[in-house]
Amino acid sequence: MSAPLTFPPDFVFGVATSAYQVEGGIENDWSAWEREGRLHDPNARCGRACDHWPRFFDDVGLIQRLGATAYRFSIEWARVEPRRGEWNDEAWAGYRARAEALVKAGIRPVVTLHHFTHPSWFHAETPWHEPACLPAWKRYVERCAEVLEGLGAAIITLNEPNVFLMGAYLAGVMPPGLKDGRKLYAAYANMVRAHVIARQAFLERAKGARLELGISQHLQVFAPERRWHPLDQALTRLAEANFNHAFLEALTSGVLAVQMPGLAAGKTRIDGAAKSQDFIGLNYYTRSHLKFVAGAPFVTFRFKDVHARGLTDIGWEYYPEGFGWVLKQMKRYPLPVWVTENGLDDRSGLKRPRFLFDHWHELLLARAQGVNVTHYLHWSLMDNFEWLEAYGPRFGLYRVDFETLERHETPACGYFRRVATSRTLTPPDEPVPSR
Ligand code: FCB
Fold this sequence. Notes:
Blueprint (H helix, E strand, L loop, with lengths): L11 E5 L2 H4 L6 H7 L16 H14 L4 E5 L2 H4 L8 H16 L3 E5 L9 H4 L7 H15 L6 E6 L1 H9 L11 H26 L6 E12 L5 H24 L1 E6 L3 E6 L10 E13 L6 E4 L17 H10 L7 E6 L9 H17 L4 E7 L18 E3 L6 E3 L1 H12 L13
Bound molecules: beta-D-fucopyranose.
């Protein structure tokens, strides 16, 4: 089937970042994790990142030059509440001023409240698997709602809770670094409750005005490593259910059902969770192949270059067809779909135009097949700190020189602008490699 090559007039093109990855100068659980030597390179530090906090107002110009009309960024909880119970009012005012600057520039703020990181006190005093996390979170999100009041911002309550929960409570590669299925389920349920609490806080401030709020869910395509093997096949189904869909189902039906044999299980009805999103926020990057292994966590995964296209620079499968597949999966939820992240680690800066074309083509195909995709936010505005890999990967439309902190256009900037402003998908001109 060929797709109509135009985006509708109200389709929103935007770009995304998260605070810790770009702002610089943040002291939180992740900076402590770095000091413990937990990244792939034990000496790597996030440090000043892109220095986006002071440069934000100039960086708004970068967004405008892309023809983008939405910017997804996050509030860093550690910046606004560095010690438990103590607000940093200057930081709160700083976020308000930044959101206002976007609105003034014709760019809608899409604000994430939780993007993997926490204040340094969080895991010791109010961890996600204890009920004490909820009053701490409530206080924080109520203030977020107050500070953003009247700006028409869209809200992402939680970024990829599935990635955070598996990384922090099962694989132990993100703080607090646990491997504990019982705590995993408790944390899972509390994060659903946290979403509901944030929704209530923003609804109260909206005072009847239209609110657009949801989570960003990481959606991955899973496939059995050994196609014929019943256990690999079973793992694929379990991953789809527990990783891709459990959180979204909970925010649809109100029931959180997790069934990870030998690891974590539970079924809980959570008050207020049913129909608690206004859109499905979807982050898509790749496909992974799963293989059963004896002994917890019973699974290994790897990225395979199935179509001989070459893995991406971070080692993930280049698989645009999977984007179409996950978009079509979203038909089971009766809500508009916002792509809140999609991007490529492209260290040459030359491959991203093709990536955009391939993924936008899949998006338009999915739309033609009835998926109501209304937003596409590219990860990322500029190169930034990537969690475990630090500064190796380059996901930015703008290349950042981490010595001088200058931002430079990559060939994808012009291409993004052309498609976002013309709303017509034409293939990119082949970029000329620089010598
Ligand atoms: C996503 C994260 C985002 C970024 C991209 C590459 O899983 O949400 O912060 O690291 O991957």
